[in-house]
Structure formats: structure tokens, C-alpha cells
Amino acid sequence: MEDQIWNNIIKRLTGVETEESKLFLDQWLNASEQNQTLYKEAVLLWEWTGLLPKSSNEKEENISVHPTVEEKKRKSFKGIVRYGIAASLAVVTSLSAYYLSKSTSEVATKEIVYTVHKALNGKVMKVTLPDSSTIWLNAGSEVSYPKDFHGQRTRAIQLTGEAFFEVTHNEKQPFIVESGSLKTIVYGTSFNVSSYNDNQRSSVTVKTGKVGVLLRKDSLSKPTMLLPGNQLVYHRDNGELETANIYADEVATWINGDLVFDQATPKEVFATLERKFDVEFSFNAADFEGCKLTAKFPNQSLKTILTALSASLHIKVKEHGKNIEIIGGQSCN
Length: 333
Prior knowledge:
The chain is an alpha+beta fold. It has five helices and 23 strands. The longest helix has 16 residues, at 33-48. The radius of gyration is 23 Å and the shape is elongated.
């Protein structure tokens, strides 16, 4: 029943409604005022939502750049995000909100000024956005966004790396984060996004509120809804999505200096240490084939962490200034 309602709403909004789908949807709307309210929300979001602006190729640390961007307003349906589902005694499952994208041949050209921030290795940066939302940017991460959200249908953020967001509520202007293969849509909440290029996994974890996450390459896919303590993990090697639960107060503890590894490969562990402590590791990845590490280091020094890794990974460490050589290792296959 849920899918049938979903499809009939899409048909009405895209102008391809049939007599059968019209009759079904009208019956659903007449079943309750709640259904009518939910449908109105979908129509409003249809009007609000547009394409995310393209990222500028020219990026420098803590400066503004001024690319000219062509933005397309679309008439045909491209994507939809749904919040919350509750059963109804009439015909229906209710949908509490939608994210929709439109496309058209009409092209509007305008100049958008972008601000770009990059947190260098060994640094954590706090960024305040034009709408007073806050971003904590983890080491080795970069974020870009329009200098002014005024006149924009969405508050569009591009992220490479990891960041914790505390979003100011604005139901008329959805807050959207594009990070690697994932797109996250919120209205006012706090959540963590991790999407480093050298990691095999990307993740979205919610601390407060609710977010919807879907794959950027498949805008017609049904979104995964996350509540406080929920985490969605995307595996880049096989394209699979996985959900998990954690304690909400453990979200983004990296801001306080903590390191948490959950089934991370040694390569990912060393990459994280490189960013956090601004060092470089040399090692043979084949020495750790098939190995995964789960550990938590609460704001500990690099020396303490390396001592623990030496025992668990069967390695020896030689430090040459900022260059650290890893010797030994044992395959887990």
C-alpha cells in the first residue's frame, strides 16, 4: 500500500496522473486531515527544492572564490525524500515530509560566491555559516558553500572529509550536505558526516533531530531515515548500505580529541593518525591483509596510540621526525 501511495503522489506532481491513480490518491486525501497536510508539505517542498550548485574547481584555504554557475530549474521529477511512516486505518501509510528535485530545459545563469574552508592536518576548525549554523571541520577536511544563502532554494554544502553539523532550523530552506556518494537532507538538527577519499566507508550519524540520506547517483531511491543514535554506513567497495546504532553522546567525540575505530583497516587507521597528528607513515599494506581494528583512544597521545597498535598489529615503530616507519605486521587471512 505504501509504495502505491508513493507512486501516485509522484504521478500527480509530475503531471502523468491516470484516472485510476487520481481516484486512489483522492480517496487517500479524503481519509484524514493528516494525509492532506502531508500532501501539502510535499507540494511545498517541490517548489522549494532545486539542484545543488556545482563546486568550484578553484579552492583555497579560508578564502572566497567567484565562479559563474549555471543552475537548471527542472520541471520533471528527479528525486524525493520521505520522513517518517505511520500506518492509517483507511488506505494509507502517511509520509511526513519529502525532498523533491525538478529539472527543465530552462537554464538560469547567475553568479554565486563560494566560501571554502580547509582544516589542515593536525587542526580542527570551527566554521559559522551565513544562517548561524555551525560546522566543526576535522583535520584534513574541506567544506564549501555559497557565501550568502539568501535567494537560494537550499542551503547547499559540499564536504570532503569529516564534519559535525549543528543546523539552524529553517523549514523553508532545507540544509543539504553532499559528501562523496551520499546526500543528507535536514531542516534543523545535529549530525556527523564522514567521507574521506582514502576510506572505504562513508557514514552519517545523528546526534539530535532527524535526517534523510540517499545515494546521489540514484535520486529515485527511497531515503534512509535516521534518528538520534542512528548511523548509516556506505561501503564504497560493494555499494551496500548498512545501518547501526550508537550512543548519541558518542557522536563526533573527535572534536574533543578522541579517536574511535570500528572495523577499520590498518591503512585507514594510519591515514587517520596522519591527519590528526600531522605525520606521515610508511608501511607495506600487504603485511596487514584482511586485518580490521576496533578500538577507542580517548584524547591520547600519538606515542600511546602507537604503543597499543604495536601490540595488536604485531609491528615495530621507528620515528624519523614526522616520518614514521612501520615494520612487521601479520596478515589476518
